[in-house]
Structures are given as structure tokens and as C-alpha cells.
Structures
1.
Amino acid sequence: MTHPVTARVPAKVNVQLAVGGLRPDGFHDLANVFLAVGLYDEVTATPADTLRITVEGADAHHVPLDRTNLAARAALALAERHGIAPDVHLHIAKDIPVAGGMAGGSADAAGALLACDAMWGTRASRAELLSLCAEVGSDVPFSLVGGAALGRGRGELLTPLETGSTFHWVFAVADGGLSTPAVYRECDRLREESGTGATVADVPDPEPSEALLRALRTGDATALAAAVTNDLQPAALSLRPALAETLRAGADAGALASLVSGSGPTCAFLAKDAETAREVAAALAASGTCRTVREAFGPAPGATVVDG
Ligand code: C5P
């Protein structure tokens, strides 16, 4: 196939992010419960003379256009595996906040992989796609799969989860991003400082919460709100103390739960229903504690070819 192919990929929120100790390879073992939410990036692959990236969207100027872009790395990994030249123009229509803790970069990688696979006719199996995703980044396999899933290992070993209902979310997008490695480093530093230690020998193995999995399964938003946790939240708040005000503004407005999304700085608010979500969104927009407010519900489907 040589015509353009477009893939659409959702953002995610982590409803549980339990972080184990620092491993010798620099990663942390996780019990990471992902929920895909309906904010999407679209990645279009078009035949070209060389690998090239362009980006459109409000945050486009924050996205790298070189080979550090995760979409480029995904295309390169697929091309290398199949011994073909990575000559593709990847255009990213970006709606997911950049460096926000919502897996926007990972979404672009999963989208690029799916779009290039269709365009180049490499016909990678699902297992091969998942292994290429894991090579590119810990959160990329989930961007491919979507829905809800438990991620073990560094987050790449996925078990799909059942969800009994749609959950309504509001996202408060901060000014500027946070670097994921910097947030993990701060988490380690805080653990060292508190005297518990930060390595795998010091920190108990992270385990998924049974109450949280049950709440997802039964579609009970109140029970889910009581069970959400994010071990990276203290680190994100330490690096960006003003996020505490954003979290408070959402809680005051009636959110069932307020938490930092992944490594932040986007804050996520779980609402009882669509109407409450609108109220929480309006209050956050009026609070002056964030740059933009978005509403989305999850679970959302994973990466999908929409055109091509
Ligand atoms: O896998 P990915 O490239 O997205 O990870 C980015 C960085 O986040 C890693 O280099 C590491 O510092 C940190 N990380 C971690 N443990 C994980 C996932 C990511 O420490 N499970």
C-alpha cells in the first residue's frame, strides 16, 4: 500500500499507579491500572523520501520533530525489524496534552506503528506490534490496546480488565510539562529522604488493589474514587507545588476523586456523571489554577486505523 494511512489513538489516565523500588536497569516495577479516555491524537503516515515529522495542534511547538519523537522511534523500529527504509512522513494532529502524564507521546508511537504497518504492508502480528511498542516505551503497549488494563513489569506487561460502565473525567492541563524520568527520580529522592530507601530491596512489590479492580468491573464510580492512588503524586507535587491548588479546586467543585494523572502535571478528576463533570470543568476553568480544562470519558478504544 502506498497511500496515506491515519490511526487514531486515545490518551490515558492511571487509576492506580503503585510504584515499586528502583531496579538495577533504572526502571521501577509497577502495578499500573490504565484507563484509556476519549482524547485522541491522529497520526497520518504518507510515503516520503526520508523520515519526516510534522505536528499540528495547540501544543505542537512543544513536540520534538527529530528522531527523539516516539512516533519516529516506532517507525524506525518497525522498518529495522523488516529490513526496509524508514521513509515516511508522519503527521501528528495533536489533541492530547504534551508531557502531561496522559501518554500523548506513547499514543503517537502506537499510532505511527499501526499506520506505518498498514502503509508499508509489513503485516506485523499483534504480538510483534506489542513487542515493538514495549521497545519504544513502557506506556506504548497500552496505547495500542486501549480500554482498561493492568500493567506489570515496567508497565508493558498487560492484562486487559473488564469495566462495568463509562467513567466521566475532567482533566486540568497545567502550563508546561513535567519530565517523566525527573518525576521518578524525585519519587526515589523522597523515599530516600523519608528513610525508607528507594531500591527494590527497600520498597514492597507493588500490587493491584482488589477494591479498585472490583470498582472498575462493577462500574461503581464512588467505589473507584475511594480506591484511586498514584505513588508518583507526592513527587509531582514536590516538583510543582501549585498543583495542590488545582486538586483542591476540583474537589471543592464536587469531583469524587482528584489526582495527578501519571507523572503529571495534568490533574484528573472523576465525576459522578456527565452533568457533574460539566460543573467540575466549569469551576476549574474559573479557578485560574490551570491552563485548559478538558472533559473525556473512558474506557476508550485503543489505536485504530480510521482512514487508509
Ligand atoms: O519507558 P519510558 O521510556 O516511557 O520511560 C521513561 C523513563 O521513565 C525511564 O527512563 C525511567 O526513568 C522512568 N520509568 C521508570 N519506571 C517505569 C517506567 C518509566 O522509572 N516503570
2.
Amino acid sequence: MEKFIIKGGSTLRGEVNISAAKNAVLPIIAATILCGDKCIIKNCPMLLDVYVITDVLKSLGAKININKINREIAIDTSGIIDSEVSSDLVRKMRGSFLIMGPMISRFGKFKTSFPGGCNIGTRPIDLHLKGFKALGAEVKLNHGYVEVSTTKLIGSKIYLDFPSVGATENIMMSAVLAEGETIIENAAEEPEIGDLAEFLNQMGAKITGIGTDTLKIVGVKNLNGISYEPIYDRIEAGTFMIAAGITKSKIKINGINKEHIRPVVAKLTEMGIGFEFKGQELLIDGRNDLKPIDIKTMPYPGFPTDMQSQMMSLLSCVCGTSVITETIFENRFMHVIELKRMGANIKIDGRSAVIEGINKLNGAEVKATDLRAGAALILAALEADGETEIYDIHHIDRGYVEIENKLQDIGVKIQRVKC
Ligand code: UD1
């Protein structure tokens, strides 16, 4: 077990490079199953979640070569034979369920246990299953296992009752090799879905409507292996933006798609943070006095739920009252109790948190309860008086590449120690 020890109060300076998006890379790695050929993922973020999904593919028979120095992963899925995956691997990470679509598409059947992942809500898979059934598959749920089988997938029109990111991706991947045309209505529009569609199209798929809520997929006979570099991680970029805001610093962030991060920039601008974009670079200035704001998490292009906890750390130190309403996950306020240990004044009222900003947080012993909650605690620690010790940092390692090195490079006093 490891923990972070962070000494608060530093002013940040210099620049930070953003890695490729975890949430883009996971479905792309799952999609390599579809071609049964060799694919190369360039500038791949070396993260725990990436190792879990590559372990899933390996356990099925794929050959995987991870080059950590070049940040490149070569995946050869031609040898995949197994139609069942160990439940331990799938329970470790919800993203593993993204192999279901590609597996039934290529092999006609797959069995796995119900997925795990961050403990932020019930996280059902009904919309994924609705999509598979609409494409003609039979779905059986038995003793915690999901078994999907079909002799042939046939294109269909599917309306998603909620624009689920994972369901949109899984259905899209199961439809690319189906016979005929599939239309996904009320599809999620997150940039990572666009990136997966772009990856599939470069492999030979025919997907249109990318970036809209209606995706049209015309089935093709087969797909080819390719080399691909995924998009930058908008959530990592947003986390560093808040690092600048919470420490009243000016830093440079390299590797930003301005369009993808628009909702976060809009809210931070409303608070008084300064932005200067130049291509994929950003100079962010958090030195102004900041104003409280209200935020509601929404599907893209709304404010991302994955930035909610980090925003709460910032608002905890901005004088005045702010309200954050979480509409995506019902249990995503676990960081509140930890922030309160650091002196934050936050009250939860149903799906909303009312934050009365205070002048200064105090360093404390806290626990990362999930990935983004962990990021929120790091941010709070940057502002806090004295030292903060953050436990259970394996959650943070799931989604932030070498976060302590990136923070040290911009002047943060942070150490990773065994505990
Ligand atoms: C993805 C992201 C996660 C992000 C989330 C929302 C990945 C690997 N993870 O998770 O970081 O927080 O999008 O932006 O990309 N739902 C159903 N039925 C379903 C599926 C989902 O009711 O079949 C509900 C969920 O309970 C939740 C909401 O839809 O309330 C959003 O979930 P979803 O968009 O599916 O999130 P994930 O794909 O799991």
C-alpha cells in the first residue's frame, strides 16, 4: 500500500504535459478485438486501468507488447479463442465490460460477470443489453454472470433511454460488423466516443453522425489493424486547470483540445480564472480573486461528472456559497466527508452539495474513495495549511499518469511513500 504526503502552500510554475485519455484508450483497446489483426496504440497512457484491460485481452489469448518507454502498446488479437473471462478481472474495472460488444460481434458469444469499477453508484448495464438484444442477440443473466450469444447480428434502430457512454460504445462496437444499418438514437456525445468511432472508421468501419446524438453504423464484412494515437485527456487537463486556480498560480498546460474542455473552461472563466489558448497549449492564470458558482453535472456537452469532485475542492476555498448538483451518478459525494476532515464547509441535500467557501483548508489524513475523489483531495492538499496524507491512492493510479512527477515538475511538494 502507498500514500501521498503533500505539503500545501506552494505556488505552481512551469508547464505540464497532458497524457492521452484513459476513457478513450479503454474502448479502443477493447475494439482491437474486432479486427483479429495487429493494432498499435501510440502515446498510450501507462495506467492501472490500461493494464487491467490488456490483462483481460491477454487472458482471452491476445498477444500484447507494452513498451513503457515509447508509451506504445502493440495488440495482436488474432489468437483470441476464449469466450469467457475471469470474473476477478472484470470486477476490477467497469471498463472491462466494453469487450462484450467486440466479442459477440467477432465470435457470436461471450460470458462474463457483472462489471465492477469506482463505487459511485449502482451503475447498471441494462442499456448495453437492450442494444445487444435489438441487434438480435440472446441475453441470459445467471448467478451474477451475463451471457450473450447470437448466430448473426443484424442492424437495428436503438433508442437509449439515457445517453450512456459505455452503452453507446458497446453497441457501436457490436454493430460495426453486423449485417445492415444500425442507428443509435440519444447516443452519448462525449469526445471519447468520437475518438472510438474515428479509430473504428480508420480500421474500415462506416460510422457517421460522430459528435451528434444520432450515430449511423453501416455494417462491413471485416476490419483491418491500424496504428492510432488517441485524444488528450480532458479530465486530466481540467484537474491541472483547477490546480492552477486553487494555488493562485499561472502555469502552461500542453495537450488540450479547447472544444473538448469547453464546459469546464466556461465555469472556471465565470469564476474569474484567465485562459489564453494557443493551438493545443494553454496558459492558465488563477491569480485573480475567484467568485462562487453553481454547477450541474450533465452528459456532454454539459459539465462532466468526472470533474465534479475536483471543482468541489476549489469551491471549498472560494468565499461565498456555491451549489453543485450531481445528476449522473447517485453516489458521487463520497469525497465530501474527506474534504470536511480538511475543514471544508459542505452540506449535502439530496443530489446537491451546498458549499460555503472558507479562507483556508487544513492538512489532514484522508482517503481516496474513488479515482476523481482522489484527485480532488490532491487539489485540496495543494491549498491546505500544513501536510495532507492521502491513503488508498491506487484509485488515483487508475486514471492519472505519474501524477506525483507531473506535480513535482510544477513545484508541488509531494511524495509517494509505502504505508
Ligand atoms: C463513463 C466513464 C466515466 C464517466 C461516465 C459519465 C469510461 C471508461 N468511464 O462511464 O469516467 O464518469 O462515463 O461521463 O469511459 N446507466 C444506466 N444503464 C446502463 C448504463 C448506464 O442506467 O446500461 C446510467 C448509469 O447508472 C449512470 C449514467 O447512466 O447513472 C451514466 O453512466 P455511463 O455514461 O454509462 O458511464 P460509464 O460508461 O460507466
